[in-house]
Amino acid sequence: MGLVRHLIIDTATEALSVALFDGGELIGHHHEIAGRGHAEKLVPAIAALPEGGRADAIRVDAGPGSFTGIRVGIAAARALAFAWDARLSSYSSLHLLAAMARRECTAATQPIAIALTGGHGELFWQQFDPRTLAPLAPSASIPIADLARAADAPVVYGTGAPTLIAARGHGEAHLLHPDARCAMLLPEAFVEEGVTTRYGRGADAVPAGERR
């Protein structure tokens, strides 16, 4: 069997990030802190990759993060997987950030703490084993003030790390955005076949019929 080509799509946060790997070798990528406009920018970013980004397998960030960003990435991944008859899998944004953090600090012995910007004054929070990257507890969306009182990790990584450390008044923050180029750092055991969205909290918008 030939080498497998992977397309990675990550739009769950402010970052718009895509990467193409051939047999584990990075052969093309696009990464920017786009903020908004993922829907307009994603397809052109993929098309600009070698051979239009065509791959045998597609991996997509399924959240948590931005509702819109998650949906944009998953919709594109599903459409391309269908068009190319490619395998489709997904991963957690928090898990990817943990893998990136471990690469920054290979000698870490304390749990890897990840804080990701959420909505409504909350942060997504999860900690991971520094050796195996296994989650130490389920992810949660927690009000910033509550998390600042409860979280005692001396070092925090992720897009929400500066906010948490500022609210807490002590500790070290490492600002990290999910980067598709780092997706292969994530152990296969934490890559899920198919796509299960991980919004992490309720929707921002509520249908009119469900409002009180």
Describe this structure in words.
With 212 residues, the protein is α/β, with parallel strands linked by helices. It folds into two domains: 5-92, ATPase, nucleotide binding domain (Nucleotidyltransferase, domain 5); 93-174, 2-Layer Sandwich (Nucleotidyltransferase, domain 5), CATH 3.30.420. 26% of the residues lie in helices and 27% in strands. It has helices spanning 38-47, 67-84, 93-104, 144-150, 161-168; strands spanning 5-10, 15-22, 25-33, 57-61, 87-91, 112-117, 122-128, 140-143, 155-157, 172-174, 192-193. The strands form two sheets. It has a six-stranded mixed sheet. A five-stranded mixed sheet has the order 8-7-6-9-10, with helices on both faces. Helix 1 (38-47) runs parallel beside helix 2 (67-84). The protein is globular.
Features:
alpha/beta, Nucleotidyltransferase, domain 5, six-stranded mixed β-sheet, 5 helices, 11 strands, disordered C terminus
User: Number of DSSP helices?
Assistant: 5
Termini, distance in Å? 57 Å
Spans where pLDDT lies below 50 across 5 or more residues: 203-212
CATH class of the largest domain: Alpha Beta
Instruction: Spell out the helices and strands N to C.
Output: EEEHEHEHEEEHEHEE
- Averaging pLDDT over every residue, what do you get? 91
**How does CATH name the architecture of the largest domain?**
2-Layer Sandwich
**What's the structural domain tally?**
2
By helix and strand content, what is the structural category?
A: alpha/beta
Order of the strands making up the biggest sheet:
3-2-1-4-5-11
